[in-house]
Design brief:
The chain is of the alpha/beta class. It has twelve helices and ten strands. Strands 1, 2, 3, 4, 5, 6, 7, 8, 9 and 10 form a ten-stranded mixed sheet that branches. Strand 1, helix 1 and strand 2 (33-40) form a beta-alpha-beta unit. Helix 9 crosses helix 12. It is globular and about 60 Å long.
Length: 330
């Protein structure tokens, strides 16, 4: 029996690029697919475009959200109505090579010990039209799930892949924050996949000017909630301290970086935004577990926790980023 593949497409104001995304799915060499598009309360013509494709192709389904809820919520809604044996996702401004799904299915069908298969990731720059391969920093094409999770934490491998349905059922998209927390899903899927492998099918990632993910803004602070959420999930799973300590250090780096963001951009924020961001930083600063941070890390200027004295911590961060700008120009 030919396995069905569900493709989850979260859509928000991507009318300009959505047809290319959907055309790539309609052109797949692997035919037993369903495409579930979730319109996340778009204000452009995205909803109309989905309707046009759904009317023409019976394998395209549409779900509509009345409130913009973020990609993780949208993908969970898409998964809820999906029926595929294998599941993958495709952002609405990205696209697949014509054989992408077929290549991934081939690997999953060939290896019983493998529950997740990474696509070949290619960045497409909107300004230059140049394609650049993402460089996976690992050896070989077969990874132990635990090793793959650790690599994904540091973006040494990417998070665009196809998995067995049971992984999404057990570990849905993390909705702890509006942005970034969905990355935790890939990390947890890899951890529980047994083996993680690669295929030659291409996922084209569209790097466009003005994309929220690449534009400084208050959404950047979501990194703190996303990282803290991953830590809590692995603690609940009673994963080894070495994994959790690594995540704690990543969380501390995020806290410091977002403290620097506050000092740099505070003049562009309203008083309410300043107050909200400071409270978010303060909450995570108070919750950091010092025993999980390495001694050298805790003693590095700019990263000294000053536990119990948030004002001193923030002044240190201000000086650190000021000196960094003078010395490095960033």
């Amino acid at each position: 029996m030919v396995k069905k593949v569900s493709v989850l497409v979260a859509v928000y104001n991507c009318a300009e690029w959505l047809p290319r995304c959907l055309d790539s799915l309609c052109a797949q060499s692997y035919k037993n697919i369903e495409v579930v598009c979730v319109d996340d309360a778009s204000s452009d013509n995205s909803s109309m475009i989905i309707d046009e494709y759904a009317e023409k192709y019976d394998f395209i389904k549409k779900v509509t959200l009345t409130v913009n809820s973020g990609p993780a919520v949208a993908r969970n809604e898409a998964f809820r109505v999906s029926t595929g044996d294998y599941v993958t996702m495709l952002d609405s401004d990205d696209w697949f090579s014509a054989d992408a799904i077929e290549r991934a299915v081939e690997v999953l069908e060939k290896y019983d010990d493998t529950a997740s298969v990474l696509f070949r990731l290619v960045y497409h720059d909107e300004r230059t039209g140049v394609n650049t391969d993402f460089e996976n920093k690992c050896e070989g094409d077969t990874l132990d799930g635990v090793y793959a999770m650790r690599l994904a934490l540091d973006w040494d491998i990417h998070g665009l892949y196809m998995s067995h349905r049971w992984l999404y059922e057990k570990f849905p998209f993390d909705t702890a924050s509006f942005l970034y927390s969905d990355d935790n899903t890939a990390r947890r899927h890899y951890l529980h996949s047994g083996k993680v492998r690669f295929c030659d099918g291409i996922y084209y990632y569209f790097q466009r000017k003005g994309s929220m993910m690449h534009t400084p803004g208050l959404h950047y602070a979501d990194l703190m909630e996303a990282t803290a959420s991953l830590k809590c999930m692995l603690v609940d799973e009673q994963q080894p301290d070495s994994y959790i300590n690594h995540i704690e250090e990543r969380l501390w780096q995020n806290i410091v970086a977002i403290g620097g963001y506050y000092w740099r951009y505070r003049h562009t924020m309203t008083k309410e935004q300043q107050h909200s961001l400071l409270n978010r930083i303060k909450k995570h600063h108070a919750n950091v577990e010092l025993h999980r941070l390495s001694r050298s890390f805790k003693l590095k200027f700019g990263f000294i926790p000053f536990k119990g004295c948030f004002i001193l911590f923030m002044m240190q961060v201000r000086i650190y980023f000021y000196l960094r700008k003078l010395i490095k120009g960033i």
